[in-house]
Amino acid sequence: MNKKSIKDVVVTGKRCLVRVDFNVPMKDGKITDENRINGALPTIKYLIENGAKVILCSHMGKPHNVLTEGFGLTKKEKKAVEALPVEEQAVAKAEYLKKALKDKEKFSLRPVAERLSELLGKQVVFATDVVGESADKAVASLNNGDVCLLENTRFMAGEEKRDEALCKKLASYCDIYVNDAFGTAHRSHATTAAIAEYGFVDTAVCGFLIEKELAVMADALENPVRPFVAVLGGAKVADKLKVISNLLEKCDTLIIGGGMAYTFLKAKGYEVGKSLVDDEQIDYCKQMMAKAEELGKKLLLPVDTVAAESFPNPIDAEIEVAQFDADAIPSDKMGLDIGDKTAEIFANEVKSAKTVIWNGPMGVFENPILAKGTIAVAKALAETTATTIIGGGDSAAAVTTLGFADKMTHISTGGGASLELFEGKKLPGIECLNNK
Q1: Looking at the domain assignment, is residue 176 inside a domain?
Q2: Which terminus of the chain has fewer CB atoms gathered within 10 Å of its CB, N or C?
Q3: Residue 69 domain-assigned (yes or no)
């Protein structure tokens, strides 16, 4: 990795603005999964131990009702209010504002500051704004080794708009900018990239989480120990067009499962019934199969499938399923998981590999009846001695839910960012950092 990390600069006595990923799931004001907080701890602890003044910032969710002023009406809501008779406008506006205020409470990072205080064993000062009176005061009060957390960056309209004034104000809080939010490194927002891109901070480095993600994943893609097997699943081919093409050039075997496999099967001229198919990508799938042949790469598709009459509703509902050969799915059936024969073929291929990357489940893994294919692949990864890398998102959720997380070499913290790395794209949140 050619980017500087916090170990390459002197942090003692320096104000470090650290972009972390605290976009954690919440229920009734309680954090239900602390993985992202835990992922940021090594960087935060290092900065504390080395006498830095630590200013943390992160987004949480998509609080689009919450505007720069704190909370207000969206353009759509203003339009709706103005369309009402004058005497009804005040009541409607009050209702919208009440909803916006609830949004502000729902998306506040305050519970994260409280939990972080417990995990660090020291108080994390919480600023009730991103830039403003509370943030000014919180930053000014920091001594060496102290920590504060700013409120949800997306409460500022300028975060996603890369607002220069917002970047300039945030830069005034720090001597060093640290990005440790791999999960948002593919976003070009104010706190993820623009603050450094605009040149408002001279020193921009990564934290340990990003350093690890790049070391493991970039190395696996550029210098894999072979055989190198890539496993792709998930619903849509369109989501992974460039990923498929890029991985074919790098791996020895590309395994395709999940909903996206049926577009490939249809491209082969197979009957796929009511299975999910992206008709616009049929030609692309034909091109990729031809590319694999031309490059001498193995491209494995399902040979059988688990099908039902329709998609389960709710997603975990008990449904009646049957297995069919992949070239003979009945016209009234929908493929929802790979079949037993396919699971065995895919598992054997994984077990013979020295490097495996996996992104996307093999079927509707949220349903126990349709999770067997994903379990088979996860189990094969858990049992191999290969370097195993899980590319975030649903695959990470699957291996964690299935209890195989501790058997994997690396589980990425960023689904979208991982995919863009697999595509061969440059990530704005990485590119903006100082080179070594």
Answers
A1: yes
A2: C
A3: no
Mean pLDDT, rounded, for 210-224? 89
Give the active site residue among 72, 132, 416, 424: 416
Q: Is 19 a catalytic residue?
A: no
Asked if residue 370 belongs to a domain, the reply is yes
Amino acid 103: pLDDT: 67
Residues 17 and 59 in one domain: yes
Residues 193 and 338 in one domain: no
The CATH number assigned to the domain holding 50 equals 3.40.50.1260
| Rounded distance between C-alpha atoms, residue 221 and residue 242, angstroms | 14
Buried-state track 83-103, b at ≥16 Cβ within 10 A, e below 16:
eeeeeeeeebbeebeeebeeb
Query: Does residue 187 have an active-site annotation?
Result: no
Active-site pick, 99, 110, 115, 236:
236
What percent of the chain shows pLDDT beyond 70?
Answer: 96
Catalytic residue among 3, 14, 19, 36: 36
Active site (annotated) includes residue 233:
no
What are the pLDDT digits (tens) for 28-74? 888 988 888 999 999 999 999 999 999 999 999 887 655 544 456 67
- Boundaries of domain holding 193: 6-63+107-212
Same domain, 261 and 312: yes
Integer Cα distance of 127 and 110 in angstroms: 9
Active site residue 122: no
Q: Whole-prediction pTM value? A: 0.82
Q: Where are the alpha helices (DSSP H) in 273-392?
A: 282-295, 340-351, 372-383
Q: Are residues 342 and 387 in the same domain?
A: yes
Cβ–Cβ contacts within 10 Å for residue 43, how many? Answer: 25
Q: Judge whether 433 lies within some domain.
A: no
